[in-house]
Amino acid sequence: PLTTQDFDTIAAISTPPGEGGISIVRISGKDAFKIIDKIYRGKNLDKVPTDTINYGHIVDPQQHNEEVDEVMVSIMRSPKTYTREDIVEINCHGGLLVTNRILQIVLSNGARMAKPGEFTERAFLNGRIDLSQSEAVMDIIEAKTNQSNKAAQNQLNGKLSRMVKNLRHQILKTLANVEVNIDYPEYDEAEVMTTKIIKKRALAVRKSIRYLLDTAKTGTILRNGLATAIVGRPNVGKSSILNRLLHQKKAIVTNIPGTTRDSLEEYVNVRGVPLKLIDTAGIRNAKNQIERIGVKRSEKAIKQADLVLLVLNASEALTAEDKKLLKMTSKSKRIVILNKTDLPTKIEVDSIKKVVGKDNVISTAAIKLNGTDALEKKIANLFFKQGIQSTQNDVMVTNARQVSLLRKANGALNDVLKGVKAGMPVDLVQIDLKRCWTFLGEITGDTYNGELLDQLFSQFCVGK
Ligand code: GDP
Ligand code: ZN
């Protein structure tokens, strides 16, 4: 429906905290235009077309209309707006004081301070986007590489939603079939036929759900980063290799404090895979930090890692410490890097390949740039087996909430199939099918509750 619900009017500063060239105070709701009328001097905003930006001044009605700032005011009329409500955005000078003063004036003249994510929540409640799309908005804000961004954009475009809705529709059709057959029990073969239909449909839907679950591994990495530990004894070339990975792509993405994570995390972009380095306490200081990581701390890092890069010095024979690290990482997803191959090789390459598998070994000479390109490729291939291009258009599940619902939906279908196999009465099997339908509905928000919304949108930053 194009009509918006009758919510109160909310406002917040939508630009990041701190000083900048401009800041934006955003207002959304039925009183947005009434409020700006009271506090703006300039054009007649009632007469300006929608989606225009207008020069003028903000004044403070409670202070004899004292002029507060020179501004540009965007006017966006319902329903074609982010929230589907009337929206006003005040572009003011980006000072802390002036921005906060304007927000205060807006609040004293009829708006309420928005909760984190409340603008996006409105977009959801007013039917502009569904829940998985709302989550995509957050993912776009936090995206660390182009691939992460692409996956989130696809989700915002509604690809995942359409697929999930289609699965729900198939289930609904089946449930309808079942109803009909239950209503005509005198028809002898009804029960048998119904069971056949249910089984066929359940298998098909389960296949799609499993496909989506398969994408989650890559999707989650794109969203959260791949926890990576670079280990090896001193002087084998860890810092040099890290610096190669950094310098070639020059892409350190730093989380802005005040968004969802409170600690500063840094990522290395390796061909679209965001590597989140463990225990390096800031990539910029990595050179010093890595030095201090002894075997003991390596053990901890290895445990946390999704991927271990174990660096060995190929110009020396294996030491006891090397062997220990090889053993410690034997259960991890790992790449063993034989570095310093520009020098005469003393390490037994073949026996190492035998132990760790030849696909997991790579030779480099970091000092000469040799092999680091191949290393990047290997890292990327490890996580994007189908080739990284597959993220360009494919549906991808990226967050834990969606994954957990898909698992539940998958479980419900397993129950359906078990029931069919055991010859359970159709009306009982139907209950599990309905459960699956409900779980899928929670992904898109077709079925939701207030608690879920609070929990989900509170992860957003204020002003989004
Ligand atoms: P880390 O202690 O493991 O971090 O090792 P570094 O990256 O700090 O390197 C230790 C020393 O080995 C430095 O002098 C590097 O220049 C040198 N080094 C690193 N990689 C190579 C390489 O591929 N070949 C040669 N010959 N020297 C290297
Ligand atoms: Zn070093």
Structural features:
alpha/beta; single chain; 7-stranded mixed β-sheet; Gyrase A, domain 2; Four Helix Bundle (Hemerythrin (Met), subunit A); Rossmann fold; binds zinc ion; 464 residues; binds guanosine-5'-diphosphate; GTP binding; 3 domains; 17 helices; MnmE_dom2
Structural notes for this entry:
The protein is α/β, with parallel strands linked by helices and 464 residues long. The chain folds into three domains: 120 residues, 2-Layer Sandwich (Gyrase A, domain 2), CATH 3.30.1360; 132 residues, Four Helix Bundle (Hemerythrin (Met), subunit A), CATH 1.20.120.430; 165 residues, 3-Layer(aba) Sandwich (Rossmann fold). Helix content is 48%, strand content 17%. It contains 17 helices and 14 strands. The strands form two sheets. The protein has a seven-stranded mixed beta sheet with strand order 3-4-5-6-2-1-7, with helices on one face. A seven-stranded mixed beta sheet has the order 9-10-11-8-12-13-14, sandwiched between helices. A hairpin with a 5-residue loop joins strand 4 and strand 5. The two termini are 23 Å apart. About 6% of the residues have low confidence. Guanosine-5'-diphosphate binds next to helix 8 and helix 9. Its EC number is 3.6.-.-. Exhibits a very high intrinsic GTPase hydrolysis rate. Involved in the addition of a carboxymethylaminomethyl (cmnm) group at the wobble position (U34) of certain tRNAs, forming tRNA-cmnm(5)s(2)U34. Keywords: Cytoplasm, GTP-binding, Hydrolase, Magnesium, Metal-binding, Nucleotide-binding, Potassium, tRNA processing. Pfam families: MMR_HSR1 (PF01926), MnmE_helical (PF12631), TrmE_N (PF10396). It is found in: Cytoplasm.
